[in-house]
Every structure is written in structure tokens, then in C-alpha cells.
Write a structure and sequence with these properties.
The protein is mainly α. It is 70% helix and 8% strand. It is built from six helices and three strands; from the N terminus they run ααβααββαα.
Length: 147
């Protein structure tokens, strides 16, 4: 096995392990709030992309429209989103995050960041900066050709 092969293998394993822990801890954090993991994901997409249509949300979350409709119905009942008619085409419905939706995401993200901060406090500042730089580069390369 070459050095490059070994590094690729180690990185792949480490990224999967970190991802698994982030997901597990994220679900544990969400259990303390009135929001499910799919709702959290949908709100993140909506907040990051502005008012989008149901079809656009389905594409970004890789969900069937029937599944997304049920999800959006629950989120609307919980007061996290609103459906609004498009100003230019009344047939188009856009999804808008409400103040309650923004508030719950803000609370959840605060808790998630606090958790990560407690982990990162065991690293030196230069190591944290190198990690941010390396992960930013990796993300950039992985998303370069993605539309």
C-alpha cells in the first residue's frame, strides 16, 4: 500500500467516524427540542437558500415529494414555516421560515456549537486553524463540480 493509499484510507475512515459522532450527538441534542432531525435538515436548507419551492426542497434533501409534503405539513402546524404564493406566478408556492423556525434553529445551533467548543478546547489554536483550513479545502474540492 502506498503512502497516498494509506492516507486516503485513514481519511475516509476518520471522516465516517466523525460524521457518525456528529449525527449521533446532533440527534441527542435535538431530542431536547420540539424538532425532528428531518425538520432540522429542512429548516437548514430553507434558511440557507431563502424562500424556495417544495420541488427545490425535495431536490436538496433528496426526498420524494410525498415525504416532503408530510414533513412540511408538520412544520407548518408547529409554526416553523409558512407556505406563500409566489408574487410572479400565483400557482407556485414558496416555503418561508417563520420567526419560530429561526428561533429553534438558533437555539439548536447554539447547543451544537457549545458541544463542539468543549471538544475543541483540548486542541491548540494552530491545530484548530489547520483543521478549519484543511476541511474548507476538502469541502471546496468536493463541491467544485456539484451544481
Amino acid at each position: 500500500m502506498t503512502t497516498d493509499d494509506r492516507i486516503v484510507e485513514e481519511l475516509e475512515v476518520l471522516l465516517r467516524r466523525v460524521n457518525r459522532i456528529v449525527k449521533k450527538r446532533g440527534r441527542e441534542i435535538l431530542a431536547n427540542y420540539d424538532i425532528t432531525p428531518p425538520q432540522f435538515d429542512a429548516l437548514q436548507v430553507l434558511i440557507n437558500n431563502g424562500e424556495i419551492t417544495m420541488g427545490e426542497l425535495c431536490d436538496r434533501l433528496y426526498l420524494a415529494c410525498s415525504t416532503a409534503t408530510d414533513l412540511i405539513d408538520r412544520m407548518e402546524r408547529n409554526g416553523y414555516i409558512e407556505r406563500q404564493r409566489d408574487q410572479n406566478d400565483r400557482r407556485v408556492i414558496r416555503l418561508k421560515v417563520t420567526e419560530a423556525g429561526h428561533d429553534i434553529i438558533s437555539e439548536v445551533m447554539k447547543t451544537r456549537k457549545e458541544y463542539l467548543a468543549t471538544i475543541l478546547e483540548h486542541l491548540e489554536e494552530k491545530d484548530k486553524e489547520q483543521m478549519v483550513h484543511a476541511l474548507s479545502q476538502l469541502y471546496s474540492l468536493m463541491t467544485k463540480d456539484v451544481g
